[in-house]
Amino acid sequence: MISRKQFQQMNEGRWLESERQIAKLDGRDKLTPEEAREMPASFRKVCQDLGLAGERLYGLALSSRLNGLVMGGFRHLHRSRARFQPIRFLTRTFPGAFKHNLGFFWVSVVLFWLPFFLLAFSGQWGLVWIQSILGPEGMQGMDAMYGKDGDALAHGRATHGSDFMMFGHYVQNNVSIDFRTFAGGIFYGIGTLFFTIFNGLAIGAAAGYVHETGDPMKFWTFVSGHSAFELVGLHISSMAGLRLGWGLIRPGQLTRMAALIKNAQESLVLLGGAAVLTFFAAFIEGFWSAHPNPPALKFGVGIFFWVLTILYLMSGRKEWYERP
Questions:
Q1: pTM of the entire predicted model
Q2: Rounded CA separation 170/196 (Å)
Q3: Helices (DSSP H) in 56-101: which residue ranges?
Q4: Which positions ≥6 away from 194 have C-beta within 8 Å?
Q5: 307 and 220 assigned to the same domain
Q6: What sections of the protein cross the membrane (predicted)?
Q7: CA 204, CA 13: separation in Å to the nearest integer?
Q8: Pair 23, 169 in one domain
Q9: pLDDT digit string, tens, across residues 181-225
Q10: 132-190 pLDDT, tens per residue?
């Protein structure tokens, strides 16, 4: 067993750095991004040092010093985690988590858009596959909204009663889709893969059906306004589920339960951001999309929201995300 003096010499530099960081936080100063990332790991090491000092009877003075570091670290880490800051979440934490998991985004894009285009163009050679996806009720709904004589606004109000009720329906429907996509990640990501592919097939089937039997302009002017928030929200829900499943497939040095908990914390950040996007999508869908406005205006609004969404997400930095 090493002596108290050797133990102190080995770790003195790290303890001094921890004391400096705690003093900085006590003085209401902010840590650099690198310091903030390293602080949880440094805190865990100080906790281990305190345990060793007590077990090896290194003395009251050293134990008291380390106990002060542990209490200071706990105070600041607990405060930063317990206080939810919506502005910080939307401007830094969420876009940072998005950038940190960008690879899962591209996986989701391929899983969704490949089936989408396959079904959307399959109508040129017959409606068999499209009919198998939509079913009779789905095709009737598409005819009522986007058929030659269809009216999306009249259909929505006949079904739900008012714009506000349509908004509530879209929130419930879209959130349920996003949550199923995310929750499927608990099965090693298989459920997320299934729901992402299925959503691509379903939306592609709807687009293909309207192009072959209905009025495509009604369809595209309806979806253009809210499509950015809705589809990107769906992709980010898929990212969250894939993140969850990947933690189970590749737990590293952690147990699978520990890896699940760790990845769930990061996944929930993504899911929270997806929920915000989905809420905006439902609001636009309920109060704007079905209303009769010039197609040029609707497409212009849709393009604006796509550009805004892309710029917002790509503005994120990996180092903004405080990893659990």
A1: 0.72
A2: 19
A3: 60-82, 86-88, 94-100
A4: 184
A5: yes
A6: 104-130, 186-211, 269-290, 296-314
A7: 60
A8: no
A9: 999 998 899 999 999 999 999 999 999 999 999 899 999 999 999
A10: 999 998 899 888 988 888 887 777 777 777 877 888 888 888 888 998 999 999 889 99
